[in-house]
Amino acid sequence: MLAYIVRRLVLAVLTVWAISVLSFMIIHLPPGDYVTSYIASMSASGSAVSEGEAEALREQLGLNKPITVQYAKWMGLILQGNFGMAMEWGRPVTDVIGDRLSLTIVISVAAIVFTWALALPIGIYSAVYPYSFLDYVFTFVGFIGLAIPGFLLALIVMYVGFAWFGANVGGLFSPDYAEAPWSLAKAWDLTKHLPIPAIVLGVAGTAQLIRIMRSNLLDELRKPYVITARARGLPEHRVVLKYPVRVALNPFVSTIGYLLPYVVSGSIIVSLVLSLPTVGPLLLKALIAQDMFLAGTIVLLLGVLTVVGTFLSDLLLMWVDPRIRLGRQ
Amino acid sequence: MGEPAVSAESPRARRPEAIVPAGQAAAAQSSVAEQRIAVATQWQLMWWRFRKHKLAVGGTIVLAAFYVVAIFADFFAYVDPQESDALRSLMAPQPIHWIDDGSFRPYVYALTGTRDPVTFKRVYVPDTTVKIPVHVFGHGERYDLLGFIPADRHLLTVEGAKASESLFVMGTDTQGRDLWSRLMYATRTSMTIGLVSVAISLVLGVVLGGVSGYFGGVIDTVIQRIIEILRSIPTIPLWMGLAAALPSDWSIVKVYFAITIIISLIGWTELARVVRGRFISLKEEDFVMAAELIGCSRTRIIFRHMVPSFVSHIIAATTLAVPAIIISETSLSFLGLGLRPPAISWGVLLQDAQNIQALVISPWLLIPSFAVIVAVLAFNFMGDGIRDAADPYL
């Protein structure tokens, strides 16, 4: 059990390190740096930046040092909790990201909760009544859900909301609360706006999970112990729920591991369409402006969040599955 | 395992499968069928099983149609997809009238564009006095079929007018470019980008997965850890970063290949997993041990004995990987980080639909999304069919 936790932890740390290198590399791949794009944007608006000024700016931002040094410096600062300056905004990165990161977490978690809440009962139903009319309906809807990319679904939802109901279904807050400080009323407002993004994000995952749950449970229901239970006269709901569902649940739990990166990924692009105040739109802007600290931090934090979530789901799996808990793989 | 299966299902789901054959004829027929199965090759068996999967067959037909469009895009398009004119912006799809005076003589009405004095929106009114004849398979703009055969036949052409000024089967975009023609060229880009990307993923996946599964040990551990790490990274931010890093002065072709490589950098992991799994399970099989004992070389064991028995699985996994790639490319291009505007792909077309107000006024901008959904569905159905046919026990 301990060995399992340690192995997962080591892997998580390795992953975080790989993500940090990748995100740092990404920022450095484009030709030119922040200063070049700063000069370009300044000259576009009519004011020139002299050679000397550019050099001074590079010196100040440490852009003229070798890449490895820049990486070490960046990591050192991050470990101290200092994420650097968002250059375009002239404010600390933590300030700019602020609530957006927690809102990204809220949306992702809501999407996963939605996915589970829907996939579990539907999966059980489909396995208990295979080839029934509703099973076919769910399979069909599931296929469609898998085939529609998140941003497209978001577009369609926006379109339907706008054209048929005349309402803007995007955003996470009503205009009254968007800039207001956190309060109970604001949290309630957020809860009211959550379902649409959660559904849009969760649909594809739900379709996948239903299929997994259905096939797992179907396999389980064919086992002799189920017949024994039924033969001894247990009520049908106990026959199904007591053991088969619990066994079929294991692979279900482990899917969070890959559901999470998927949902976080999706939240970026869906946020752009639904104009949600998450880190998605910020990341796109930062990448276009080549704001390295900001973009790097966002990619890094998203990656770290995902890794932490995956680690938590590993612990959950351990709790659910005695085979792992007792050290037999 | 066979018998309990039936009783585990609820009575409602049980179907009368065991219809007792009525006479000798049926028995004789079934033995002929059995003989046929006994001598059939592995591929024949797969084909028979695949044929039974109606959705998969349907998906295959749809995909074939998509690739026909991709290959002959210039034939299906009737105008240059880049030809723009602000005076034709955001025209609604125009109906073709197929019957004229009781006989088959398709025509469209000429359209005159004016500006609405109240909303300042451009409106187009059909001029019912001017009928422009439409020909199927008529002569139109010149192009090179397959890149080298000069041709001028198009699926649709008009007579006595320029097609770009009078025929708008799916309407036009904000810059007055014909959506139908653009969709044809976009199909070419988006459907091939899936193939190129999957080819790269396949090479990476088969080589790394094969090495991992065959040799095992430290190499296996390292490759598996790399896969695990790659899979736990949220892909979209990573792709966005990599795609944003592409120099903006690159040509369309360069960006196209760069995007395919970026997408396949992550896509190979799933294929590697499948290949590794097959390698590991096959290593334990008796026929592999027999080949080893006879003294076959390692290469011969791999390519003569092991590879043929999992090629079908790889084909299935590959088919199922394509739709994910198509969605990735579409998403990236939609964000403006994938293929960039002179290039035409489904994602690029959908960029126009980003503005929700514009979309409400001109919903036809959403038409390309149906192409995406249908293609992805068709690939999924076909892949499912192949997977079921390749391995009924899976």
Listing every helix as H and every strand as E from the N terminus to the C terminus, the arrangement of chain A reads HHHHEEHHHHHHHHHHHHH
Strand content of chain B: 5-15%
The gross shape of chain B turns out to be: globular
| Proportion of helical residues of chain B | 55-70%
Radius of gyration of chain B: 27 Å
Strand order of the largest sheet of chain B: 1-2-3-6
Helix/strand structural class of chain B: alpha+beta
Q: Count every helix of chain B, treating DSSP H or I runs of 4 or more residues as helices.
A: 15
How many helices of chain A? The count is 17
Q: Which consecutive residue ranges of chain A, at least 5 long each, have pLDDT under 50?
A: none
What is the subunit arrangement here?
heterodimer
Task: Describe this protein's structure.
Chain A is mostly helical and 329 residues long. Chain A has helices at residues 2-28, 34-44, 51-61, 67-79, 93-128, 133-147, 150-165, 175-178, 184-193, 195-221, 224-231, 236-242, 244-254, 256-274, 279-288, 292-320, 322-325, and strands at residues 85-86, 91-92. In chain A, β1 and β2 (91-92) form a beta hairpin. The N and C termini of chain A lie close together (10 Å). The model of chain A has no long low-confidence stretch (mean pLDDT 79). Chain B is an alpha+beta fold and 394 residues long. Chain B has a 4-stranded antiparallel sheet with strand order 1-2-3-6, with no helix packed on it. In chain B, a hairpin with a 3-residue loop joins β4 and β5. In chain B, α7 (179-215) packs antiparallel against α8. Chain B is globular, with a radius of gyration of 27 Å. Chain B starts with a helix and ends with a helix. Residues 1-22 of chain B have low confidence and may be disordered. Chains A and B meet through α1, α6, α7, α11 and α14 of A and α1, α8, α9, α12 and α14 of B.
